[in-house]
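My current task is to audit a protein record that another person submitted. I need someone to confirm that the token line plausibly describes how this chain folds. Take the sequence as given and treat only the tokens as open to question. This is what I was given:
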Amino acid sequence: MRIDKPPAAATAQDPAAPFSRAGPADDAPPVLPRSYKRGTRLGLHTHREAQLLFASEGVMQVTTPRGRWLVPPDRAVWLPPRVEHAVDVLIDIEMRALLVDAQWLAVHPEAARLTDVFVVNVSPLLRQVILACFGPAGPHPRRAGLLLELALFELPAAEDATTFMPLPADARALRVAQRVLADPATALELDQLAAEAGASARTISRLFSAQTKLNFKEWRQRARIMAAAQALAGGRVPVKQVAAQLGFSSTAAFAHAFRQVMGTTPGTLLRTAGSGRDPAVDD
């Protein structure tokens, strides 16, 4: 694994400008295009600006104190100002990040709906708006403002939490969550996991429902699918093998569960992400 420094936080040149600058120069581009190889980790860091994080190719995982998001090319992550986060690259990515000035964001009509971290499903319109912000010489400031304003209007309506692994706040439930995330294939039942954490199964079940908005069975299934996506991204492991390792009764059952969470099949996800894998390995 390669540890890279996160991109430097931008210094806003003009509070009225929607984009924060990517560097100290007045003519620096208002965006952060970056390429990262699989295995790269951008450790925990913050930006004083809000950030829209998108990978036009590849797959990344974004972690915050609230949980983890798996981000394939049809998703993007919205991070409000000063939210601590880390990024793990699962498949080589072409990252496109927009750093949005906090003062400008505060007066945007959608500001009240952009106060939390969330993942969005990137529609064809939103994808083109994001990519239009990038160019060899950077966008014209007026054009950039209009593009960003449109993007922020699109974000709340596009929220999609299916690739989010929320973490419970209660210490006992968190211990159970961390146990499952460390070994998603574990055969331990909820009552055994709860006992290890010093609580009853009923208490843990109630805490998961209240604090993650998922019942424990749903949460555990999502954890397995997230682990499967990471395993498939990490090398040439056949889908059948990954399914068996994670305790699915058949490849068909795994593919069905994967589609429910990810909205696509394992093979389609990897081809879309540009992993370079042989489709025969995945279908």
